[in-house]
Each structure stands twice: as C-alpha cells, then as structure tokens.
Recover the amino acids of this structure.
C-alpha cells in the first residue's frame, strides 16, 4: 500500500520517530472520529472514520517523504486513476438510489457496472500507456486468452 512504501523509505533513512508520530496521530484521529460518527451512523460511521484516517496518514507520509527526500511518489497517471474512481463511485451511487430492491444479483450487476464505468473513464481520460499493453501481453501469455480487442483500444 501507499503507507507501507512511504513508511519503508522513511525507515530506511532513519526517520522512525516520524513513523511513530504518524501511528500515534492516526490512532487518536481514528478514535475521535469513531466516537463522533459511530453513534449517529453506525457501521457506516466506522467505515468513514477508518477511511478518513487512512487518507490522512497517507497524505502525511507523502508530505513527509517529499520533505525529507524530495521524491514525488505520485504521477499525473495516478491522479487520473483516482479521479476515474471517484467518477465511477458517483455514478454507481446515483444508480443505487434508483434501485428499489437489493439482492445478490443487483450487487453483482452494480459491481460489474462499476468496473465497466471505471475502465471506460480510464480510457476516456487516457490513463493507459505502452506499459499497460505490455502487461496485457503477459496476461495473454500466461492465460492463453486473446485480448486483441482491448489492446486495439489502448493504441
């Protein structure tokens, strides 16, 4: 994960006190958010608290890593993938508001829809590059499944 990679770099440059500070801060932040959100939102509040804590710690590690090493760990491609994810999540959210019944079939269809929306959005905002084509070739070799249609889309 992003935290693990940043933490490993900080550890290798002997910034273990920074890692300890981030860990303590994340525990405190998570407890406070859980106390505020769980009584009102239940398990959804716990999920929001944990996700928010994860995002905070990821940002802290990124800022600290840049501060100590001047290394940029994110690229424009990564930012585009995050944007595509948010767009896809928003579309699925609005679709779920229209669905009256919720069962296994609806969940499977929503999951497939999310994946399709996400991949189409990635394609539209031009996230795929030559490395991705090489990755598809490796998948073809190992699975014996021809992915010519997808490779043509990536070109």
């Amino acid at each position: 994960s992003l935290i693990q990679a940043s933490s490993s770099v900080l550890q290798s440059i002997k910034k273990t006190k920074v890692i300890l500070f981030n860990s303590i801060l994340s525990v405190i932040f998570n407890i406070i958010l859980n106390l505020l959100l769980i009584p009102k939102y239940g398990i959804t509040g716990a999920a929001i608290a944990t996700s928010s804590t994860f995002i905070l710690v990821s940002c802290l590690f990124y800022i600290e890593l840049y501060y100590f090493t001047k290394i940029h760990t994110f690229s424009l491609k990564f930012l585009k993938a995050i944007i595509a994810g948010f767009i896809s999540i928003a579309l699925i959210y609005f679709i779920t508001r229209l669905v009256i019944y919720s069962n296994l079939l609806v969940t499977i269809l929503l999951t497939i829809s999310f994946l399709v929306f996400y991949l189409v959005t990635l394609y539209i905002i031009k996230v795929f590059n030559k490395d991705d084509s090489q990755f598809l070739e490796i998948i073809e070799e190992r699975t014996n499944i021809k992915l010519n249609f997808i490779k043509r889309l990536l070109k």
Notes: The longest helix spans residues 43-69.
